[in-house]
Primase, DNA, polypeptide 1 (49kDa) (Schistosoma haematobium), 213 residues
Amino acid sequence: MPRFTTYCSTTNGQNLFGNKKRLDKLLSFLPVELKDLRERLLDEWSTDTQENKEEVSTKRWNTLRKFLKENGRANVLKEIVLNFTYPRLDVNVSTGLNHLLKSPFCVHPKTGYICIPFNPQEVDKLDPFNVPTLNELVEQLSSVTNNDHDCGNNDENISSNDRHLLSFKNTSLRSSIEYFETFIKHVLKAENSCFNVNQAEGNSDSFKSIPVF
């Protein structure tokens, strides 16, 4: 879980386990049968004078991770990571798991607005009330289909499926999809680089796909 290790880092992350309040939260996720471990770690870490030292948060996470892995409790690690990284975008998302998450290109059920990816460097130009809506996309796609039919645009080199997938280029989603594609390409490139480095170093914790577990 290399990504989460960086996430909880004292110096490079959010110092997730650097003080007693945060330790309480971490250890609260341990199951009842590990009560003795929870109490022992809380006692040891609470009296530890290393709270202000470099990377104490990462060291604590690695200690817990090693113990759980060695004792066949990797499932607990997954639960902890999910609880700390699950997106909480508003109060409804926090209290109800079935509430709409703002995933790329999802549709808001009340407004019909499309959730679009955008360049954070251009956030000042983003008008949240001027994003594509579902109704607009339906009209735009219908117009493209009708124009192709009227113009006899039936290029034999392009299958019907490919033509359908490329229809977005004629809609107001084009710039958002192209930006998202660029973003994903960079993510995959970074993931492949990390994977190759871990493989070369013989790292047993190296990940084989994008998810942290």
Summary: Confidence is low (pLDDT under 50) at residues 204-213. Residues 98-132+173-213 form one domain. Residues 174-200 form the longest helix (27 residues). The two ends are 6 Å apart (CA to CA).
